[in-house]
């Protein structure tokens, strides 16, 4: 418990000092709230409009929880295929990198033209955002297996599937979870961008409404919600990593 607090108190103190400095600067320089609201005004708006925000938050969370597993699943499958088929990796890996040079917001109109205004274009967009970090991290982890152990298993007569299941896959878990953590934050961002291109509720839709009304305080409220959702999903992935990565070596000892 003591080591946990040693890790958490430095960023916590930094955030508190930043918020305090923000509050003092807004008050000292008499900055208009429509330009930069104070943390107090943002907190007041957050608490006063909590019931109305819940519907938008729930919509974004639902979209994230649908798109994130699909995107990461696609990324993991792509990593497996490229790892098991080196010739396919040589052919497709440059295209994977090239796909990340296209801004997700630029794909939105195309996805609407191709798939309409329903749920499908939003899921496709989140998948495109999420799959790449998982695919790259998983491929890196699979490629960094212990060569000494691999040679030993080959000499012992292990099949390619046994080497994959008992050595490569368990050894790739730390790298895989690194990719999952990155994708967790991208998933929330992807959901918000997907709501910008067409939705009637959600944090992204809420932000568009408040931008039109010049409600900067509510824009910051939306940003806080996005950060909290990202941190929540990141924490869940971290807890899953702590359980699985600790359990796997014991299962193979």
Structure commentary:
The chain has 253 residues and is mainly α. It has a single domain, classed as MetI-like (MetI-like fold), CATH 1.10.3720. 85% of the residues lie in helices and 0% in strands. Helix 6 packs antiparallel against helix 8. The longest helix has 37 residues, at 160-196. The chain is globular, with a radius of gyration of 22 Å. Mean pLDDT is 86; it is low at 247-253.
What is the secondary structure topology, with strand pairs?
Elements: H1 2-28, H2 39-48, H3 50-84, H4 86-99, H5 104-115, H6 119-143, H7 147-155, H8 160-196, H9 203-212, H10 216-251
Helix pairs in contact: 2-10, 3-4, 3-6, 3-8, 3-9, 5-6, 6-8, 8-9, 8-10, 9-10
Euclidean distance between termini CA atoms: 28 Å
Q: In the CATH hierarchy, what is the superfamily? A: MetI-like
Task: Give the strand content.
Answer: under 5%
Largest sheet: none
Please report the first level of CATH classification, the CATH class: Mainly Alpha
CATH architecture assignment: Orthogonal Bundle
- The number of distinct β-strands equals 0
Q: Poorly predicted ranges (pLDDT <50, ≥5 residues)?
A: 247-253
Tell me, rounded to a whole number, the average pLDDT: 86
Shape: globular
- Rg estimate, integer Å: 22 Å
Can you count the helices?
10
